[in-house]
Design goal:
Length: 174
């Protein structure tokens, strides 16, 4: 069964706890979403609060994919660029699908829903994202239409002696 996507879903405990649980589970499964396992909900909460503040200020929009039971199963944050010369593209951050749903095509569905959302914003002509090298993520994003446009070797230190490339990907919407 497909996920149901909603841009800017209503806030509240269901959303908060769902996103925190998803982010924790994805991180602990080794997902490249800003943390290294093991993490707890309390480790994630400060980052959620930063995203929430950006959403409240209108700088960021939240896209959520709900599974058939209504649980938060996927997320992506679409962040508007505030630099006056770069407002024609946005960032896609914290792209996550719950590990229990891997292999079902939900990652592609999430990226397609994010693309649809971005096309609905006035003046947006491209989506940029970054991903951690060494995971094969750049191949996945490329298979969804993104092109690698930059790479900084060893920019992400996962652990001492384990540095990964920071890869920038771009999806033109034109």
């Amino acid at each position: 069964m497909a996920l149901t996507f909603r841009l800017d879903p209503p806030g509240g405990p269901h959303l908060r706890e769902g996103v925190l649980a998803l982010w924790t589970d994805v991180s602990n499964a080794g997902g490249s979403v800003g943390f290294v396992p093991p993490v707890t909900v309390e480790d994630i909460r400060p980052e959620w609060l930063k995203h929430l503040a950006a959403m409240t200020e209108g700088r960021t929009r939240l896209l959520v994919g709900y599974d058939e039971e209504g649980a938060v199963a996927a997320t992506a944050f679409l962040a508007f660029n505030t630099h006056r010369l770069m407002t024609h593209w946005l960032w896609l951050y914290t792209v996550m699908v719950h590990p229990r749903h891997h292999g079902k095509g939900y990652g592609r569905d999430l990226l397609a829903a994010a693309e649809d959302a971005a096309r609905g914003f006035d003046g947006i002509r491209a989506i940029r994202l970054t991903c951690r090298g060494g995971e094969g993520l750049e191949r996945f994003y490329a298979s969804c239409g993104y092109k690698e446009v930059g790479r900084v070797p060893d920019a992400i230190r996962v652990a001492p002696g384990d540095e990964r490339d920071d890869i920038t990907m771009l999806l033109p919407l034109g």
